[in-house]
Amino acid sequence: MTSDPSYREKGRAVFLAAIMIVSVFAMSAAFAGTAVAEDPEGETLDQAYDAAGPTWTDGDVETVYIGQEITIEDESLASESSVILYEGPASLDDPERAASIQIHHDQEEDRHWGEFETADLEPGEAYHFVAGDSEFDEKEFWTAEEELDVEFEVNTVTQDDTVDLEFDSERDVQHLNVTSEEFDGGELDDLFNYTDEWQNDYTDDVLTLENVSAGEDIEVDFDDIEPGDYEFEFETTDSLAWDNATIEVVDDDASVDFADDIGGERGDVIDITLDLEHVQTGAVQIGDFDEDNFQAAAHFDVDDYSADEITLRFDTYAPNDGEDSWSVHPDDADEYDAEILEGYTAINFEEGEPLGVHDYEIIAGTSYDEGDAETHAGVEEDSETDTSFFSVFEPEPVSNVDFEIAPAGTDLGDYDEYDEAYMTSSSEVAYHDELVVTIEDFGLSGAVDGMTTDDVGEMLEEAGMEITVEEQDPGPNVDPKVWSTAAEGDEAIDVSAVYTDLEYYDGDLVATLDYTEADEFDVGGYDLTLEISEDSMFADDEDEEIEIESSFEVVEPELDLHPDNDEIPNSDEAEVIGTTTVAPGSDISTGASSAGNFTDGADAVVDDDRTFTAVYDFSDYEAGIEFDLEAEHDDSSEFGEFAGDLEDDMSSVLVDAEDPLINLNADAPDEVEPGEDAALDVTVSNDGGAADDVDVVVTLDGEELTDETITLDAGDTWSESFDFDTAEEGDIDWDVTAGDESDSGTLTVAEEEEEPEPEPEPEDDDDDDDGDEDGTPGFGVAVAVVALLAAAMLALRRQD
C-alpha cells in the first residue's frame, strides 16, 4: 500500500489535471472530425486482435472504452505491490476508491505489471491512479462508451452480386469479430473480400477482421448464396461495443428502366427519369450517329443504394458539350450523391446549333461502353435493359410580355429574393422603382441554364433575338429614341436575369429592365418589343420575323397627403391617408405634432392601389387641437432628383370621434376618344363615430343625374358610377357635392392627334456639283435656259 498524497503532490496533480482536461477536449475534437483512412494498413492498433485491451507503459494513458481490460506495465512499478484507482481527477479532495490493482513481478524477465477491468466503470468520467513513486502516480484517464455502427449500404442484393458493408466507430481503428447463424467461420471468410494483411484467421464460428478503420467499406460477395434474409453480428474484440446488419438476397435481375415518357421543346434541358433495380451504376444512350447524325451517352453512379429513382438531364441547346451536356437533377445529386462519371456527345451538323426536332431512340443499361477511335460511346449491348424515345418538339412561340414592379432598391439577385419581394403586376412604374419583365413561354431552358452572367441581351443575341424599347411620344418633328439589348453605347439597355436555376425556371424568363441606366431615358410611355429574327429557332422559315409587343409607362415619383386629412377624429384608430405613384410595398413614415400637446409618428406601407394609411391613437386629446401632418418615403434617397417629390405636409385639426365625418371621393378620366367607355365614380364615406344624413348631388354636362339624401352610419360607405356620353367630341363638365364636401372636373372627348411625320430632308444632287454629260456645270437647267435666251436676244440686237 502507498501513503495518502501530500499537499505538494496535490498541487502537482492540479497542474497535471489542467493539462489532461485540455488534452481531453482536443481528443474529443479529434474524434468528431475523424477522417476515413485511405489505407487501413497505414494505421493499426498496438494491441493484438486477441488481446483483451491495450497495455500502457511509461505512465502514458489514453481514453478507455468500457469493457476493455487495461494492463499497466513499467519498471517504475517494481517497488509497488498495488496501485489504487480513484474516481475523478487527481485534484479532487477525498475521492472515492474504484479498484485496487495488484502489481505482479516477474524477476527473470524483469517485468512488473497490473491488470484491471473497466466494465463496471462509469462512462464519460475521469479516473486517476495513486501509484507511489511510479510513472503512473496521479495519471488521469477518461472513460467512453464506444458506439459501433455497421450497416449494408442496401437492404437487398441480387444473387452473385457484391455489396459494401460500412463500419463507423468513435475509434479510428479496431478489431472486429463477425458471426452469423447462417454461416460458419470459413464461409464468412469466403464472403468478406478483405486483404490478407487486414484479415486475421478464423475459428469454426468466428471471423476476426483486424485493424478495421472507421468509415471503411468492406465488400461482401454473395456469389452462390441462396435467396433469403441473412443477419451478421459484429463486436469489438476488447470493448462492449457491438452491432448487427441484415440483408436480403434476391434472385431478381439488376436493371435500369425509363420511368416516364421523355421529351421537351427544342432548346430545353430535358429530364430523363430512371427506375433503378439493384444497381448503383448504369448508362444511357440517346440516338444513333449513323442514323441521326447525333449520339450522346452518359455513365452515371449513385452512391446511395436506397435510390430507386433518379433523373438525368440532357441539354438540347448545347448538344455537343460532352460531359457538360449531361447533368443530374440537383435533388438526386444532394440526396443520393448521384453523379455523371462520363459524358459523351457527337454531332454531324453545324456546331452551335440546338438539337433538331426528332424522335431519337434512347437506350438504358447497366454498363457503359466508352467506345474507341472507330466507335461511339454508348450502352454496352449485353447490358441493355430498356428502350424508349427521346422526343424533341418544335418550341412553342412566346405568348406575352408582362411587367411587375417592386420598391426602389429591392434586391432581385436570385429566386429567393424575388419570391420574398413585394412584387406587383403593373406596367406603370415610378422612375427609380424596379421594373421586372416576364417573357411568358420563353422556354429555351438550356440557353437560360447556360448563361455565364445575368446578361439576357447576350443570351438573346446568341438565340437570334433582341429586346428594343422605343419612346411613344418624342415630340414634333423628332424621331423617337430607341434602345436595344443588342446595341452598344448610348443606344444600349441592360436586361438582367433574376434567376436562371432550373430548379425554379418554369419556362417564363424573369428579368429586370435597367431603364434608369439607359442614356437619356426619361419619364413617359414606351413600347417594348421582343424581336425574333429569321435566324431564331422560333422562326418557321428563313424570311419570317416575329415581334411580341408590349408597353409600359414611367411616371414621376410623387407622394401626397389626402385633403380629407384636414379633419382627423380623436379616436384610438384614427387614420391618416395618402396617395403616391411609387410601387406597392414601399415604406412610408408619417408624423403628427402639435406644440405643447403631442408629437407622434406612425409607419405605413403602400397598398396595391397606390394609397397608404397610417393609424394613430388620438383618444387622449380633445377635439379642436390643431396639428401638423407630414409624410415621407423611407427610401427617398433612391430616387435621386425626385427625392423632394416624395414628401408632403399639411395642417389638420382633431374633431370629435363621436360626430359624423363625411368624406367624398370622385374620380373620372381626363380625356377619352369618341365612343370610348368613361364613367364618373363617386364614393361617400362616413369616417366619424355617428350616423348622418348626407345630401348627394351629381351633375354631368349641366344635367342633374341624382339629387338624394342618403343615411350613413358610422363606418358606412355609399358608392355609385355614372356613365358619360362620349359619342361626340367636346368637353363634359361634372360636379359632385356630398353635404359640405364637393369636387368637380372636366372630361375631354377628342380624337387622338396623329403625330406629323418629319419632313424628308432634301436629297443631295451630286450631278449639280460635279456635272456630267447630261448637265451644265455649275448651273441648274432653269438657269441655263434663261442664259441661252439672253444670249440670243443680245445677238439679234447687235445684228440690228
What do you see in this structure?
This protein has an 8-stranded mixed beta sheet, with helices on one face. Strands 10-18-17-12-15-14 form a 6-stranded mixed beta sheet. It has a 6-stranded mixed beta sheet with strand order 20-30-27-22-23-26. The protein is flat and about 130 Å long. It is mainly β and about 800 residues long. It folds into 7 domains: about 5-145, Immunoglobulin-like, CATH 2.60.40; about 150-250, Immunoglobulins (Immunoglobulin-like, Sandwich); about 255-395; about 400-555, no CATH class; about 560-655, Immunoglobulins (Immunoglobulin-like, Sandwich); about 660-750, Immunoglobulin-like, CATH 2.60.40.10; about 770-800, no CATH class. The N and C termini lie far apart (about 170 Å).
Write the layout of secondary structure elements.
Blueprint (H helix, E strand, L loop, with lengths): L6 H26 L22 E3 L6 E2 L3 E5 L8 E6 L9 E10 L4 E7 L8 E5 L9 E5 L3 E5 L3 E3 L3 E8 L3 E7 L5 H7 E2 L5 E4 L4 E7 L3 E5 L6 E9 L5 E9 L4 E4 L3 E4 L3 E9 L3 E6 L2 H4 L1 E8 L7 E7 L10 E3 L1 H7 L2 E9 L10 E8 L2 E2 L8 E2 L4 E10 L6 E7 L8 H6 L3 E2 L2 E3 L3 E7 L4 H5 L6 H7 L2 E7 L10 E3 L10 E3 L11 E5 L10 E9 L13 E10 L3 E3 L5 E3 L4 E7 L6 E8 L3 E8 L5 E6 L9 E8 L13 E9 L6 E6 L3 E2 L6 E8 L5 E9 L2 E10 L4 E7 L6 E9 L2 E9 L16 H5 L10 H19 L1
Parallel strand pairs: 1-3, 2-8, 10-18, 20-30, 33-40, 42-48, 50-56
Antiparallel strand pairs: 3-6, 4-5, 4-7, 5-6, 7-8, 9-11, 11-16, 12-15, 12-17, 13-16, 14-15, 17-18, 19-21, 21-24, 22-23, 22-27, 23-26, 24-25, 27-30, 28-29, 31-32, 31-34, 34-38, 35-36, 35-39, 37-38, 39-40, 41-43, 43-46, 44-45, 44-47, 47-48, 49-51, 51-54, 52-53, 52-55, 55-56
